[in-house]
UniProtKB/TrEMBL annotation:
One Pfam family cited in the UniProt record for this chain: Asparaginase_II
Protein name: L-asparaginase
UniProt cross-references to InterPro entries, sorted A to Z: Asparaginase_II (IPR010349)
Species name: Virgibacillus halodenitrificans (Bacillus halodenitrificans)
Top-level taxon of origin: Bacteria
Amino acid sequence: MNENEALIEVRRGNHIESAHNLHIAVVDSAGTLLHYAGNSNKNIYARSSMKPIQAIPIVETGAADYYEFSDADLSLCTASHSGEAMHTDRVTSILKRVGIDDTKLQCGTHIPRWQETYKNLIKNDKEVTPLFNNCSGKHTGMLATAMFMGEPINTYYELDHPVQQRIMQTVSEICDYPQEDIEIGIDGCGVPVHGLPLERLAYGFARMANPESLGKERAEHVRRVTKAMTAAPEMVGGTDRFCTDFMTAGKGRFFGKAGAEGVYCIGDTQTGLGIAIKVADGNGRAVYPAAMETLVQLGLLENNQIEQLKEYHHPKLKNARNEIIGELIPHFRLKHIALA
């Protein structure tokens, strides 16, 4: 391995069959880059890792209070959920309180991740609707905000809509990155996706972990979002999902969010650190061992937590016979930046 490379090795037997390159940034809540691997300044699309920041305006506008959002409701707004009944039932409940139904969701459709849900839909001859989209919670929060603010709801997903403009401003402020420099694309669910340097994304999560610099009122709003995620982690992912299992093991200390194309972000409320990870080739299978190894090298996890999450640290590869035939191995060392 080149000393500048950070890898997740894919081993079949004793042979390294392939490898995934990584970019990692670890930043404190003062904005200082402390540790890195690969290119910490690489411009990336945050994808669904941005959802905790995107949820802040739901609280700041007053929509969360007006529609009586519980922790579980707000947590679902940050989710890339599996489409289990606990997720879809809650989306339906929120929409009912808002006064609309799931036909207003503009996130499109895909097969739900939770296989039992999909089997039941087939068994009962029902269609896959936007309700089962992993982003339906986020879109529900956007719709709730638009309804509360008296804004059009049919175009809430478009870049020039006030909902998306508020989110853009919030991303810029939380990550301390000029709004005009944020690169905009379209996410898998149709809303704008934000591109910015990896270390700025890490800084955003660090500020959410320790929001004192954001002012008293915003700090309270941010804490409400992160508390919701850690109080109801099952809403963020679901059964056998890293986000849920990681936050459960963290017992309120950590909040974490996966993003498509190999992105993962973590905030540590105890140290005020923010971590942002990008798998260069976009393969999501490498991001959880990368996250685990980063946390281990930083000394942020206790031994019992490492044991609890060991299946994510060194995931086993299985064949069609369910036999273990290899594993993913983190192979990198974070570089420490000496401070003057």
